[in-house]
Write a sequence for this structure.
């Protein structure tokens, strides 16, 4: 069973790619992947556990769950349903078996920024999707390289005005934290986002994308790339062999720097 946060699946190409690959790999091993779509508030609602249990699942895979989801994860385990957790490098919950390491690729990329003259960075995020792990990760990396930075939490409605205020800054890098949020921004404000990509060095922390709003246009951004096929293949193999049910911290996967 795979609980799927619906907006992230719709807008977030990383999650979408991973889950589609995982469904295919599980089928090769004669398992059926059951997608349980839900809204953000449902991820912490005990009713979600009841929905999952109704499918008589062999196990449940959670992609980068936050601390607020621990109660539901524990409820599943109390019912005898094994869980598979994929975490973002720094464990905030017990039970993680797989980790995504961002740090190595991020440091490589920001070091390249510094060498190419980027002297200041703005970390741009949404107050509705705070992404605390990603924000701290970027802050630590920038501090380690002595790159000055600031963080802006901008409601979607105020984004155009915020980017307008930044337009005259030179040697500026923008870090966009949340994949689903910046894909939705490209749908809502395609011209503003296109100008942003053209005016500043931009890092997409959760992977590159080709948005239909930019069809036929040159949109250049740096990104961290994720080995979704490798992750899916390994998890499906470990489910098939039973390895995932008996061990903790089975594997770490590494993001890679993908310059524009």
């Amino acid at each position: 069973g795979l609980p799927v946060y619906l907006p992230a699946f719709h807008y977030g190409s990383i999650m979408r790619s991973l889950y589609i690959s995982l469904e295919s790999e599980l089928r090769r091993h004669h398992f059926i992947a059951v997608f349980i779509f839900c809204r953000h508030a449902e991820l912490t609602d005990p009713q979600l556990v009841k929905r999952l249990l109704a499918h008589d699942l062999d196990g449940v895979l959670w992609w980068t769950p936050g601390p607020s989801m621990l109660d539901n994860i524990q409820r599943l385990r109390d019912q005898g349903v094994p869980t598979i957790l994929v975490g973002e490098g720094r464990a905030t919950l017990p039970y993680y078996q797989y980790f995504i390491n961002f740090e190595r690729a991020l440091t490589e990329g920001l070091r390249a920024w510094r060498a190419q003259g980027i002297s200041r960075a703005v970390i741009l995020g949404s107050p509705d999707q705070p992404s605390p792990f990603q924000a701290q990760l970027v802050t630590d990396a920038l501090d380690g390289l002595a790159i000055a930075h600031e963080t802006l939490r901008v409601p979607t409605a105020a984004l155009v005005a915020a980017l307008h205020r930044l337009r005259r800054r030179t040697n500026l890098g923008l870090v966009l934290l949340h994949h689903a949020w910046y894909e939705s921004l490209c749908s809502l404000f395609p011209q503003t986002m296109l100008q942003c990509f053209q005016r500043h060095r931009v890092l997409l922390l959760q992977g590159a994308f080709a948005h239909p709003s930019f069809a036929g246009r040159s949109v250049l951004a740096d990104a961290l790339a994720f080995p979704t096929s490798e992750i899916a293949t390994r998890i499906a193999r470990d489910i098939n062999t039973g390895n995932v049910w008996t061990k903790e911290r089975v594997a770490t996967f590494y993001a890679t720097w993908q310059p524009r």
Residues 13-28 form the longest helix (16 residues). The chain has a mean pLDDT of 81. The longest strand covers residues 96-101. The two ends are 36 Å apart (CA to CA).
